Amino acid sequence: MTSNGTTNSIMWFRRDLRISDNPALNAAIESAHVGGGSVVPVFILDPALIGGAGSKRLAYLGRSLRALNESLNNSLHVLIGDHVEVLTELKKRYSATTVHISEEFERFGVERDKRVEASGISLTRTGSPYAVSPGRVRKPSDDTPYKVYTPFYRAWREVGWRDPAVSPKKIPLVTPTANDRNFPDWALPEGTTILEAGEKAAHKRFAYFTKNILDAYDQTRNLAGMDGTSRMSAHLKWGEIHPRTLLAGLNNTTAHDTFRKEIAWREFYADVLFNNPKSEYEYYAPRFAQMRYDKPGKKFSAWCEGKTGYPFVDAAMRQLLTEGWMHNRTRMVVASFLVKDLHLEWQHGEKFFREHLIDFDLASNIHGWQWTAGCGTDASPYYRVFNPIEQGKRFDEDGDYIRKYVPELAHLSGNDIHEPWTVLDGYLHDYPERIVDHALERVESLARLEEIKPPSE
Ligand SMILES: Cc1cc2nc3c(=O)[nH]c(=O)nc-3n(C[C@H](O)[C@H](O)[C@H](O)COP(=O)(O)OP(=O)(O)OC[C@H]3O[C@@H](n4cnc5c(N)ncnc54)[C@H](O)[C@@H]3O)c2cc1C
User: Fold this and answer.
1) Which of 114, 297, 302, 433 is packed most tightly, with the most Cβ within 10 A?
2) Of the residues 268, 273, 328, which should be mutated to test ligand 1's pocket, given the most ligand atoms within 8 Å of the CB?
């Protein structure tokens, strides 16, 4: 209790860097109200979190924290150190009786919260980063989790979600000291630009998407060269907007339903990871661990640098390097190329994405990779080998996407840009030659699959 008899509450922000539709923040405000006190908003910079993130993601986080601070009237505490020590000190200093959080479901977050609770600090969990929390959608027939997306989707809709939480009109806030204001100054690497961070930016973009893109989303979402998707992934990753908010205004048209289904993929993968924690690093379908793979070498470096000689693949990898984001269509194409054309294990690509994506999400990344590699949650997987040339022709017909990211090919027409080896001036500006022959590698990849096939198949 403070000297004037009031008690405060701590709001520990983690993957929920927003004010609106934030049930944990509302609970913290309510606790403060009961105690006659204020809310202590804090974000703890954890060396483990920082160590694992690439520079673009850190730059994004730094900007997101500043945006949150602005919405909190400059009262956000940004503290570096051990969670238990930081929270213990804050509790004592502010006479705070409760610590409020959104619930975490991934291994790292769950273990961190357990450790905090083991130290004697109790955490009040309200809400989570999902419309339906992982673990809640189960088969009515035998109470086991779903392994296949489509039935999960149906059941997920039946479980349903609440309307967005009411946004607080006024938040009573404590005043931090200068020592509490350790805002990181993580710079963006030269030559890179990232999406605008923060809750306001998320709402602005979502309003734009709703007005201009959503009604045709089912037709635009695969076209890599146009602005045809929501770009909500980084905002969702940091909780600058909640999926409930995105789902709230959707109707039952094909376009809206397609968008709802994409949100559901994020929830499905979170559920799969929750029920299969080892799939974070192990093959979801174990027999693929027995497959013959190559070791990463020069070809892997060419993939990382966007110099494979396949224009659609290279454009995508360069988009990742310069923007920290990649279109979903090309995420599948480059992932397939790494596993099926270069014969490398999916974990190499997953790690590279993890380093470079501003929207890196453990479950979506791991299971996006495993799905494309053919060892994930899919019924007839491995035979699907993406053809990087045909995919480019189909989903970047005029070559605008390639032209934007691969200047060496900008002089080529839409007809020629997907196969620069077929035209005389294809290599005029030193575009690299193909590092492998896709047709041959496809055959090789299927031959390796034969080797691990169970005798009955
Ligand atoms: C190999 C691979 C790795 C991926 N890694 C990530 C990752 O680290 N983080 C991440 O957020 N997404 C990942 N995805 C999924 C998807 O590519 C991105 O969510 C999407 O491109 C983000 O752009 P958007 O917000 O404009 O998507 P939209 O098309 O507007 O979709 C709306 C939202 O639905 C969700 N969503 C859409 N597609 C998928 C999907 N296939 N799987 C899971 N959720 C989906 C995302 O939250 C997305 O923001 C990965 C996909 C693949 C194939």
Assistant:
1) 302
2) 328
